[in-house]
Amino acid sequence: MYSDKVMQEFKHPKNLGKIDDADAVAEEGNPVCLIPETKIETKTGLIEIKKIKKRDLVLDHKGTYNEVSKTFKRDYKGKIIKIKSKLGTNFLTPEHQIFAVKVPKTYHFHLYKNKKKLFPDWFHANELEKGDLIAYPILQEKKNKKYISFEQKRKKFDFKSKKIPDKIKLNNDFLRFAGYYLSEGNIREKVGKTYLGLTFNLKEDFLADDAIKIIKKNLGIEAKKKKREKRNTLIVEVNNVWISRLFLKLFGKGAKNKRIPSEFMILPEKKQKSLLYGLWMGDGYFNPKKPKAGYSTISYELSQQIKTLLMRQKIVPSIYAENEKTVNGVKHQKSYRIHVGERKSLERLAKILKIRFNVQKPTVTDSWFDSNFLFIPITNTEKINYKGKVHNIEVRNKHSFTTESLTLHNCGDMMKVYLKVKNNKITEIKVETFGCVSAIATSSKATEMVKGKSLEEALKLTEKEVADALDGLPPIKMHCSLLAVKAIKKAIENYQEKNKEK
Amino acid sequence: MNKKIYFDNAATTKTDEKVLMEMNRVALENYGNASSLHSMGQQALEEMEKARETIGKLLGAKAKEIYFTSGGSESDNFALKGIMNSKNKLITTKIEHPAVLRTAEYLKEKGKNVLFNSVDEKGIIKLDELEKNLDKTDLVSVMHANNEIGSIQPLKEIAELKEKKDFLFHSDMVQTAGKIKINLNKMNLDLASFSGHKFYGPKGTGILYIREGVDLIPLIHGGGQERKKRSGTENIPGIAGIAKALELAEKSREEEMNKQEKMRDKLIKSLSEINKSKLNGHEKLRLANNVNFSFFGVEGESLITLLDFEGIQVSTGSACSSKNLKISHVLEAIGLSHVWAHGSLRISLGKNNSVKEVDFAIKKIPEIVEGLRKISPVKF
Fold it and tell me: Which residues, in sequence order, are CB contacts of A109 under 8 Å at separation 6+?
């Protein structure tokens, strides 16, 4: 496997260890590689990586939640990779590992015919290209919660409202109503007159009736229906403080902050169909002729949760953010659009929405599911210069976590370089390596090659020169082994930076 | 040159000289084709049937239930594909040998219902999970003992489940033949795989036990050898060799296992004394010849290469030593974290090892681990 030179270098390595009074130090391959705003899938919703704390529960590549055991951050200057797919965009350092399928470029046609033969694996961010497939986990957690309990503590002026049951059935009816509320509902909080309202289109009489029926049956409260012909709306009004408070507690305050409670997210998929039905009937559309379907919300979190719900139904979602805009003098807030366009997905969605749908036109299939993952193509990658903090987390047991659009590994290669510099020359250099035969051999060789050289000369050292000096390395080992070269350069840069300040 | 210390007997073993002599004799004396009608063909056939008889007796099976194959992988493929061809549901474990695991994945791709049963942190199958999923299962395939961490699986308990639910039971016994007493009939197995080169027999020889009455389709079609189940001109010298090897292994089994167990326990005891080290697998339900340790902050490929410089031949489950930079699926299944899995080391003893060799390894391993930790930036 290895050349004789690699084995010789490994057998008699030089410059291994540390220097206690080093002039400069640098680490490479540390597991700290995402920009601070990257949103991570956690049990309680999406959280920016900079705000993730130890013991938060994050989604792993197997679709289950695991505890964060450590968080890291560091300063980073260099290239970062932008990876875009229909699920979103992420920025990460080039060596970060992503769970994906590398698609040979000559294989495209074949691939789509043999998609079941795909097995995802870990790839470095800079190895992936447009057309490769991201393996994104389907949330696998399941718990069939049957009731919601709700404590009703009376405050002043609350006497008007009739109490609702302490234990509310979390059944299909309630979930459908929750869907209506998330799409069409709002809550007015006024002393003595707090109410929950749902605004439907005049044509949606059947939805209004359904909502009224559910409120009566599940919560024992009468709701009123009001027609506003001029505005072309139909309003269902529930004048009850308890219901209002319950819904605020469950679904958040204000349209921008609407969200689905985490225990609803892990209900059995069958039950979640009712929630999707309610949501879609409210704010969604389904155009069988195009064919396409979509949903729009101003709540970022809700849009991401709908993504998760759709994936549990094996429906391929894509998400776009639409920036704030003014149309005909009406200001529209920044919104998130979820789009469904793939045929199988549309068929599944139509079934949930009880819409008759026969595809006439064939639609493009570029994404698909197996039992654990959604495979979705990368639509664009880009290298960008970045300077600032980068973050990472370590996850207990599973060693992976999920952002809004990528499945990432938390494990890095490990290397640390120590330098002594005199008269602009490297007089001493040592390296600590946690790695295989080739990592140790290259650490030894690379340090040997820069020893005694000026800083400028040393900076010119390339990975190829080191690999060539060892008669080549196995391709799979190139990346991790040549971290030594990167670490040396970084140490020199750290030294130069430090001395500039003086 | 240093004399090599061969501690990788779970990978393969040195062919026994007596086995080679037997193979030599058969190859030179009875080189006829067992399908030929002439007397030389019939002599070859007789040689083969004698071997079949011997193996049947040693494994507690009827001679006609023994089928010769090209090795463990073929036997596993034959059993799984042969049965599942007309069936739907298969349960196996997450720690099987790739010959079973990849075959099961293949069947899953083909649309079969395949479940991969979990194991606990000691590498023993979770029986409650198996029992829960057993409904409508056609085939259960559980290895007798794991090749990496040596955990011995509760085959008896699984076979007892057959009283409640009707399923066929296959076991990959590649690691246990000649090491643990096997009586296929009593163990209530329907299919079992064996490989000759793991018990000092020739490479390229294997056995599939198929209980009388169990029907499966052949993997290799052709001239209809092996009662139409496995075509191809029989490897008579190999067959005589595997029979001889099993005979020898069985003859010295108890004495040999006692000896190896003592060496194993000595290794385990000494390696446990290394700071931040841990034994992978079960303390008691463990193959007599298997030692699997992890050393924190050390990378396995470097470790085994340095041991190789000392003449010691061992293996690792480190990601760096695999073709795809993935850690061993077995270490992953027992929930070992990456840093620990990276630093794993497997020693598998054999009949040719001596206490002196064990003592040498006990002296060298801590030195090398220490050396690698010194140059590692992973602090603990």
Answer: none
